[in-house]
Amino acid sequence: MCRNSGWVDVEKEYVGFATLPNQVHRKSVKKGFDFTLMVAGESGLGKSTLVKSLFLTDLYKDRKLLNAEERINQTVEIIKHTVDIEEKGVKLKLTIVDTPGFGDAVNNMQSWKPIADYIDQQFEQYFRDESGLNRKNIQDNRVHCCLYFISPYGHGLRPVDTEFMKALHEKVNIVPVIAKADSLTPIEVKKLKERIRDEIELFGIKIYQFPECDSDEDDDFKQQDKELKESIPFAVIGSNTVVEARGQRVRGRLYPWGIVEVENQSHCDFVKLRNMLIRTHMQDLKDVTWDVHYENFRARCIQEMTRSVLFSTSYSEHSLNRISVNLVCITKM
């Protein structure tokens, strides 16, 4: 093909940067992904069952079940479960952070503190690793999302719920869920959702905010995004039991009056929660963790380091210069 004759050699005109998304995709798939999900709420709300239903893997097979007296006397613990999942060649390192003992004591004042401390410790560890020399293989254990389970048996948020969310809403992405939604009628679910949304606004609680859709997004995605926003807090049911319904085998719960299907969107919000967590907003949850929660923590650390240097009289001039250089390097990351 000759340029003078009006024809263009396509190969010569093609630079090749259009393959960049494919390069990024290949590199990301090869490296794999990681995601840390925290689950919090009082015992008996089906947290472990829901996690098993979401990721189709049993992270709790070695768990010891406590009786009522043991739960009351139990202090808040932080327990990590990590599993490597692979689906269609894509690897995910999933970490579930469980918080047994939260909300079970007679006095739950500041029962959120060990949980907040844990989140800060992961930020602190990442900050130290990021400030070190070997930054290539940093392990990210920061908590990207916290599913907070709300009891269906109350009339809205309890004091322990509001205290927990207000204490952690600037540290982690909080996604509230109404547990065991099959214990409520559809009208009761609707009223409880409205009540919880009103109380979240009343108490100034900052839950995870879905990003606005871009103008060029297709209509189906915009509709899905609208439905997700309207579903907060998600009313969920968890079950790993397979039952027969309408001639099909489905995961659900069998009652004398009928069957509740976990993945039937007219029965609960399980599918919407799963889609949000895994299929549509997992990366955004990680981005908000990095750009908002971790950056706020990092800024506070740098301020404290700067203040300690400025007001310290115990450092030599050489040490102060070295610390100043380190601070400049950290702030440029």
UniProtKB/TrEMBL annotation:
GO terms for cellular component: cytoplasm. It is found in: Cytoplasm. CDD domains: CDC_Septin. One of its GO terms (biological process) is cell division. It comes from the Eukaryota. Belongs to the TRAFAC class TrmE-Era-EngA-EngB-Septin-like GTPase superfamily. Septin GTPase family. This is Septin 5a. It comes from Callorhinchus milii (Ghost shark). The lineage of its organism: Eukaryota, Metazoa, Chordata, Craniata, Vertebrata.
